[in-house]
Amino acid sequence: MKTVLCRSIHERILPFLVFLAILSCESNTATSPKTPQFNHVYLHVSDMDRSLAFYTSAFDLEVTKHIRKLKRTLEDGQTVEQEINLALLKFPGHYFALEIGETLDSLASNILASFAHVGIEVEDIESASERIIKAGGLSSRPITQVETESIQAKTAFFTGPDGETIELMQIISGNF
């Protein structure tokens, strides 16, 4: 049983690591994209400290941010604040990030906080969202504004043709 579980975990994580390795070849020349670009891949982890130790030791990734609070502004203007545990890791000198998150709520009330996705940074989230819908994508979370201690952004989530989850993000201030 343990062998099957380990194989399953490796089968899920390995494609993300390969994807991350390929994208890490891009140098950190862009601060704000003129065209869409890959920004991050998100993985849910069960133990943040263990995962940080693993990714920094195994791949020489650097922790560039450790985010503990998130403020989300909903479409109706209502704001929701929540405690989170997210870390952004990057290869030295590179823009693309591995985002890992540990669910703090044992009931996982925010299911969107614990799914794997690819993040794409865009200059205009409204027109990029329209383009995804016209191409056949489905909106799974409308455009919302999010804030952390050092980043302010607009985000929206979509489902692609095979059920994959895509996050669009437009950075308003700060660096991811």
Report Rg.
16 Å
Order of helices and strands: HEHEEEEHEEE
Class per helix and strand makeup: alpha+beta
Question: Total strand count, please?
Answer: 8
Biggest sheet statistics: 8 strands, mixed, barrel
Q: What characteristic shape results from the CA principal axes?
A: globular
Q: Cα distance, first to last residue? A: 39 Å
Low-pLDDT runs of 5+ residues are 2-6, 20-30
Number of helices: 3
Order of neighbouring strands in the sheet with most strands: 1-4-3-2-6-7-8-5
CATH topology: 2,3-Dihydroxybiphenyl 1,2-Dioxygenase, domain 1
Architecture in CATH? Roll
Report mean pLDDT, rounded to a whole number.
81
The CATH superfamily bears the name 2,3-Dihydroxybiphenyl 1,2-Dioxygenase, domain 1
- Residue share in helices? 25-40%
What fraction of the residues are assigned to beta strands by DSSP?
A: 35-45%
In short:
It is built from three helices and eight strands. Strand 6 and strand 7 form a beta hairpin. The longest helix has 22 residues.
Structure description:
Helix content is 25%, strand content 40%. The chain starts with a helix and ends with a strand. The chain is built from three helices and eight strands; from the N terminus they run αβαββββαβββ. An eight-stranded mixed β-barrel has the order 1-4-3-2-6-7-8-5. The longest helix has 22 residues, at 2-23. The protein has one domain: 2,3-Dihydroxybiphenyl 1,2-Dioxygenase, domain 1. By secondary structure, the chain is an alpha+beta fold. InterPro entries: Glyas_Bleomycin-R_OHBP_Dase, Glyas_Fos-R_dOase_dom, VOC_core. One of its GO terms (molecular function) is lactoylglutathione lyase activity. Residues 37-171 form the VOC domain. One of its GO terms (cellular component) is cytoplasm. This is Aldoketomutase.
